[in-house]
Amino acid sequence: MSQEPPQEVPRLVLKGIEEFNKGEFYECHEYLKEAWIQEPRRVRYLYQGILQVGVGFYHLANGNWRGATGLLRNGTFRLKEFEPVTLNIDVARLVRECERCLQELERLGRERVREFDQTKVPKIVVSDQ
């Protein structure tokens, strides 16, 4: 499997990030799943990591503590390979912010999952250059 990512962020990935940043995690999942399927290179695991943390936040919004913590943990782990920046995506920032969310969810526990401050859900930063 090739290590070199594409020269620019694929359209499907940009759409997935756009949906992620709007908090539309189901739609984000659909775009990134398609990008993951189409991508033969190792960078597909970046897409998978973003997809997983997005689904984690989807579960969080539905009060599913186990689904949220499991997918945030797995997705964050997957993303670390692509730190600090891949395809102009600030992966290090996303990892840090997801880790903070995961710590807060673990502190709150299953019974208090709905107390999580949804404004803490990160946005994905993609630089123009």
Describe the protein in words.
The protein has helices at 11-22, 25-38, 44-61, 65-79, 91-108, and strands spanning 85-86, 89-90. The protein has 129 residues and is mostly helical. Strands 1-2 form a two-stranded antiparallel ribbon. Helix 3 packs antiparallel against helix 4. The protein is globular. The model has no long low-confidence stretch (mean pLDDT 94).
Q: What is the number of strand segments?
A: 2
Distance between the termini: 26 Å
Tally of individual helices:
5
Run of helices and strands? HHHHEEH
Helix/strand-derived category reads mainly alpha
Write the layout of secondary structure elements.
Layout: H1 11-22, H2 25-38, H3 44-61, H4 65-79, E1 85-86, E2 89-90, H5 91-108
Antiparallel strand pairs: 1-2
Helix pairs in contact: 1-2, 1-3, 2-3, 3-4, 4-5
Main features:
single chain, 129 residues, mainly alpha, two-stranded antiparallel ribbon, 5 helices, 2 strands, 3% strand
